[in-house]
Design brief:
- Helix content is 45%, strand content 15%.
- The protein has 255 residues and is of the alpha/beta class.
- It has a seven-stranded parallel β-sheet, with helices on both faces. A two-stranded antiparallel sheet has the order 1-2.
Length: 255
């Protein structure tokens, strides 16, 4: 017996692949009519189905822009790092070292540590990429980005960081950097992405986090020894680049 209890099929209306039954099927116009009618309110551009199209457009734009990117390293870090701070100098040195080693650099495209890395790479003749995000309190892409795009959605932007990188390096940063760090670790741990290194640059900043992960988190069985090995903690820019390069060389040999 059908759901309406009468034994007959309920009345329905088709809206493309969507099936509308009972009171849901009452629509005064067709999809074509609504498409071709230029009158009416504009609230539709803020509906969830329209957002899906925007999300799709962002993926297409990002994939199209980055598809031919050479081997690259994504560097995360705080937008609040002052230009006269030693962390800014470290970011700039890292960008330079990565460019000289033949890697494009990808950052969030903002100020602070991100600007420092983009600047170092650009000054060294490397490809400097910035993947920005629409935020209520932060600005557009920094002046040292050669190839850039601004995203509306964090998850689209994160996909680009992961898809087009051979490694992640984390400079000191706040919630955004921590979010990107742990998402990267989760993707590598669960083998959602090809294994690649995650480097924490700056022992004085990251040591406490590393000690917590290698202490209570590991000791309570929340992660395994192999998971801990996904993290590389260092103070040295050259060491960070060496880790990246060795991992990339191993990847090349496996492919």
């Amino acid at each position: 017996m059908s759901a309406n209890g009468s034994g007959s099929r309920p009345d329905e209306r088709l809206r493309g692949p969507v099936v509308l039954r009972r009171e849901q099927k009452i629509e005064p116009t067709t999809t074509d009519q609504r498409l071709l009618d230029s009158r009416g309110p504009t609230d539709w551009v803020h509906t969830d189905p329209w957002r899906v199209m925007r999300i799709q457009a962002e993926f297409v734009e990002g994939f199209g822009m980055l598809a031919e990117l050479p081997r690259a390293v994504t560097v995360f870090g705080s937008a609040r790092t002052p230009r006269d701070h030693h962390e800014y100098a470290a970011g700039r040195a890292l960008g330079t070292a990565l460019a000289e080693a033949g890697y494009a650099v990808i950052t969030g495209g903002g100020p602070g540590a991100m600007e420092a890395v983009n600047k170092g790479a650009q000054e060294a003749g490397g490809l400097s990429v910035g993947l920005g995000i629409e935020l209520p309190f932060e600005q557009g892409l920094n002046d040292w980005v050669d190839l850039g795009i601004n995203f509306r959605y964090f998850f689209v932007r994160k996909t680009m960081f992961v898809k087009y990188s051979q490694a992640f390096v984390c400079l000191p940063g706040g919630f955004g950097t921590l979010d990107e760090l742990f998402e990267a670790l989760t993707l590598v741990q669960t083998k959602k992405v090809t294994k690649f290194p995650v480097v924490l640059l700056g022992r004085y900043y990251w040591q406490g986090l590393y000690d917590w992960i290698s202490g209570p988190v590991l000791e309570s069985g929340k992660i395994g020894e192999k998971d801990l090995a996904l993290l590389h903690l260092t103070d040295d820019v050259d060491d960070a680049v060496k880790v990246v390069h060795e991992a990339y060389r191993a990847w090349e040999e496996a492919h």
